[in-house]
Amino acid sequence: MNKVYYSLEQGQQWLECYRGKKPVFACILGFTATGLLPGISAAGATPSQRQYTAIADGEFLINGPGVTPCYPLPPLDVGASPVLISRAVVTALDIPVYLFNAGLPTPPVVPHIDLGGRPALCVSSGQALPLEVVEHLLNQGLIWGEKLAPKDSYLIIGECVVGGTTTALALLTALGIDAKDKVNSSHRRCNHQQKWSIVQQGLKGFPLPLSPLSAVAAVGDPMQIVAAGMAIAASRYGGVMLAGGTQMLAVYALINALNLEMRLDSITVGTTRWVVEDSTGDTLGLAQTIESYYQLQGLPVIATQLSFVHSRYETLRAYEQGYVKEGVGAGACAIAAHLYQNWSQVELQNAIEAVASGLS
Predict the structure, then answer these.
(1) For residue 267, which of 143, 115, 149 has the smallest C-alpha distance?
(2) Can you tell me the distance from the alpha carbon of 51 to that of 37, in angstroms, rounded to the nearest whole number?
(3) d(Cα 174, Cα 103) in Å, to the nearest integer?
(4) CB of 345 closer than 8 Å to CB of 308
């Protein structure tokens, strides 16, 4: 059910180290005005709906389908929110969940930790976040990474930021990494040209590469710096799984750029096969580029082999056509289900469909 796609030896060692261990899940919610651009993301059918996607996903992650939501999951043109996968796993396996507001236009209505951040301006502005906010969020990430790190297990760090693959491309580019045409997206086919145009506009006039904090301030989003700080601090005590594809590879690069005290061999990237095998992106090429740029001895990329080919729900089968792919820690939660309780494909799919049935 779990496959190491990059840095095979290090990835297998990580999986063996944490087999049978119950993780802790930290989900970081953030917002960037980039997500409001027409056509930039499929995580919400309209720009106004995308403004509340992270808030709705956070609410569903905590409450599930049995409670009438204040913010219903936004309708997608095709597919279903990946939070269904995360919710199914954390509920069935009783995984502790901590929800963080790193910078949202409206706070979540469920219990959460407010980090005192703010929503980011559009990447194209070149002034996404004030530097002092970035510094504050880094410190918050370091504090909470130390608090949440399970000493004999691992911390899953997930996210929900609409437009986040564009801010990931922007951050990687600002750090000096060639990520053009390598990122993924929630669209069936990645909108590379639109993303690159926005990034070029935002970084116009900047001398590259930028320092890590300046890069986030110019073209990043509030989740990225929190996740990096959290991973750095947690790695000193146990394992860390960065839950996502492109966005978490950008966080992995940011971690290396910050160059603070950490145990890099404790950190891995966990996602879905829909991300890694997406022919319209280049996840593994991006991992290789980051590995080479920072002269690393490996960058483990692990993906769940979860399949919806035979799902009775059309919205879930859409994942097999390249829609949605990942988000809200879905891939890492699916990895954890097999790693912790040796769940099979059938058990995992049944649990997810049970959650989906509550929305019918």
Answers:
(1) 149
(2) 11
(3) 21
(4) no
The CA distance from 17 to 228, in Å, is: 22
Residue 262: CB atoms within 10 A of its CB come to: 20
CA distances to 88, 240, 269, 298 from 18, rounded to whole Å, are 21, 10, 14, 18
Q: Which helix (H) or strand (E) holds 157?
A: strand 154-160
pTM over the 0.90 mark = yes
Q: Kindly provide the b/e burial profile for residues 312-337, where b requires at least 16 CB atoms within 10 angstroms of the residue's own CB.
A: ebebbbbbeebbbbbbbbbbbbbbbb
User: How do residues 185-227 score in pLDDT, each as one tens digit?
Assistant: 999 999 999 999 999 999 999 999 999 999 999 999 999 999 9
Q: Is the peptide bond before 107 cis (omega within 30 degrees of 0)?
A: no
Phi-psi region for residue 44, left (φ > 0), alpha (ψ -120 to 50) or beta?
A: left
Task: Report the sign of the C-alpha dihedral through residues 213, 215, 216, 218, in that order.
Answer: positive
DSSP for 342-360? ---HHHHHHHHHHHHHTT-
Distance, in Å, from the CA atom of 83 to the CA atom of 78, rounded to the nearest integer, reads: 15
**Hey, what domains does the chain have and what are their CATH numbers?**
2-357 (3.40.50.10210)
Amino acid at 343: W
Sequence-separated (6 or more) residues with CB below 8 Å from residue 260 = 142, 232
Torsion angle defined by CA atoms of residues 86, 39, 275 and 309, in that order, rounded to the nearest 10 degrees? 70
Spatial CB neighbours of 340, under 8 Å, sequence gap ≥ 6: 20, 21, 22, 23, 93
